Amino acid sequence: MSLPLLYRYILRNFLQNFLFGLLSFIIIFILVDLFENLDKFVDRNVPQNIIFEYYLFFIPEIIKLLIPVATLLASLFTISKFNSSSELIAMFSGGLSYFKVLIPLISTGIIITMLSIYFNGWVVPLSNKEKLKIERTYLGKNQINTSVQNLFLQDQYNRIISIGVYDEVLNKATNANISLYKTDSIYSLTERIDISELLWDTLNQSWTAINSIYRTFQNDSVTSMKIIDTVLTDRLGEIGKINLTPGIILKNQLKPDEMSISEYQDFISNLKLSGLQSSRAEVDYYSKFSFPFAAIITILFGASIAINNRKSGAALQFGFSIFISFIYLGFVKISQVFGYNGEINPLLTAWLANLIFLFIAIINFLRIK
Q1: How many Å separate Cα 220 from the centre of its chain?
Q2: What does each C-alpha distance from 97 to 16, 88, 91, 217, 337 come to in angstroms?
Q3: Global confidence as pTM
Q4: pLDDT tens by residue, 10-66
């Protein structure tokens, strides 16, 4: 059998097992979730077509979670089949190394990973938005607050905005103030305006300040003070050139699962500019890249186990895939706790589980005789 033909044979077996595993796990996942939430749907009289839409929008998130499980299962099934039927021995006898046998699987894993980064980073957030809309409308879950309290935003390096209460419906902020600092020192206040009400003007795409007190400072002492009745903030000079919009405030309320990779980058930038803790957000952001790479890691991990074991049956491999997946997700969750608290670098936190399982796979390959 020529090498390209052999690779197609290996690839066909792997893809068949991958699609079988993915479809099986999706069905199991949906059935379990449906039985768990059926009473909630019934109690709230959710129409059948809405339930169908709910799970339709849920499927991308399920696929995101289950791809590593499916690749692990496919790797185990494929290599175990070749191993138990002595096809693997024939391949080795023909001069193929372990690495060459795994080339089709690793290549497929790389493709799955690249597609998953896009799928998880942009497609899944869109579907999650629709799913969460249904939850908010019909199940009363994950409600977005129409009123937000105690907002602190660093609009630019030297301009800080604080808002006592923001009403999303009225696009109105109360008890707000804008502080402007020297560009060479964030600790040296030059101007501040305290505003009773800040209203968003949709026509001018600007804020209107009502009942304000404007002060200038020098060496932390007030040098002038002026009471202003009503004025557009962009007419207040440098202090009024704020970039904050209702859209930015609303985006800060989105759940991480609703944000695309680009939106999440902006979210983290806003947190850092505001001087707020960003460790948790950074861990989740880096995980959007590290989790897709689990497809390659689980392929290598599964292959290293299957090559060393010729006697395990399909049922045992199926159960083993689920068991290992729970351990992997357990490592992810445990490392996230330390990353969220800032005890471990966010980038390392996101990749830690992958590195551990890759290390185990390498050890298993080194044990092959």
Answers
A1: 43
A2: 23, 10, 8, 75, 41
A3: 0.80
A4: 999 999 999 999 999 999 999 999 999 999 999 999 999 999 999 999 999 999 999
103 touches 332 (CB < 8 A): no
Give pLDDT tens digits for 57-112. Answer: 999 999 999 999 999 999 999 998 888 888 888 888 888 888 888 999 999 999 99
The reported pLDDT for the residue numbered 186 is: 58
- Nearest-angstrom CA–CA distance, 175 and 254: 24
Output the CATH code of domain 147-252. 2.60.450
Report the distance separating Cα 140 and Cα 167, nearest Å.
20
The token pair that represents 253 in the structure block: 């309320």
Angle of helix 314-340 versus helix 279-290 axis, rounded to 10: 150
How is the chain split into domains, by residue range?
3-141+286-366, 147-252
When the pLDDT of each residue in the chain is averaged and rounded to a whole number, the result is 87
**Side chain identity at residue 86, one-letter code:** S
Burial-class residue 2 by CB neighbours within 10 Å (0-12, 13-18, 19+).
exposed
